Amino acid sequence: MGRTLIAGFGNTLRGDDGFGVEVVRRLGAAGLDRPGVELMEVGTAGIRLAQELLTPCDLLIIADAMTRGGVPGTVYVLEVDSVEAVQRVDMHVAIPSHALSVAKALGVLPSKVVLVGCEPMQVDEMTCDLTGELTPPVRAAVDVAVRRIHHLLAGELSDIMSVTTGNTSAQHASREFSE
Which regions of the chain are under pLDDT 70? Predict the structure, then answer.
């Protein structure tokens, strides 16, 4: 496999919304040492991902907080099977689906895109002390997400998670894997 990009989305000042950034930081601190794998802290600058994809990659893994109605700390792995066409480009929208739509419009959407998300407990308010700390269940989920990403990189996705079929989002994923 060629280049793989692991991108972490989120606002670290909004508590659990910083999940994706923390996953990428944890992978970097652990010394992710695989040829062709790059880490990127997207944060709240979603358009940066589309720009980064101008350098082709075969696999894109996006880590982000995902509100799907599960128990806080639940880790989801979703394979993206379709991306909606971009209606307009807003440089300030920092959500993965928008960045993927822009990448598709530019003709640089990777052939395989996987979302690794976590059900947040708290993301609506800016943290009062601006420390951006994750809640305990989401902090624990970072380690689970890191393990899932290592399994994805090793090509072991189908062996580690149960599969539930069905439309998991209006824009994404026909196969859902959760822990």
Answer: 1, 88-94, 123-131, 156-179
